[in-house]
Design a protein that fits this description.
By secondary structure, the chain is an all-alpha fold. It is built from 3 helices and no strands. The longest helix has 26 residues. The protein is globular and about 50 Å long.
């Protein structure tokens, strides 16, 4: 059971933004999906900081790219 819980944590941590994007895109559209993914990434960073867990370089890069391009995408859709 502990291995299964570890697998679930791994999947949510690594594939959470993709699942959030896909689900929100199917229900509400692209703009909401991008915003939800950005919020998810910021929330995940906050949880890492709150629980004082180390943030891997890959996760930092991935979250940074998600936030950067998500913000650019949302900005460009408004103009």
């Amino acid at each position: 059971m502990q291995k299964f819980a570890g697998l679930i944590k791994f999947a949510i941590s690594n594939f959470g933004p993709i699942a959030v994007f896909y689900g929100a895109n199917q229900v509400w559209g692209l703009r909401v999906a991008v915003a939800a993914t950005v919020v998810w990434s910021i929330g995940e960073i906050a949880l890492y900081k709150i629980f004082r867990r180390p943030i891997s370089t890959f996760f930092l890069f991935s979250a940074g790219i998600t936030i950067l391009f998500g913000a650019i995408d949302i900005y460009l859709q408004q103009t």
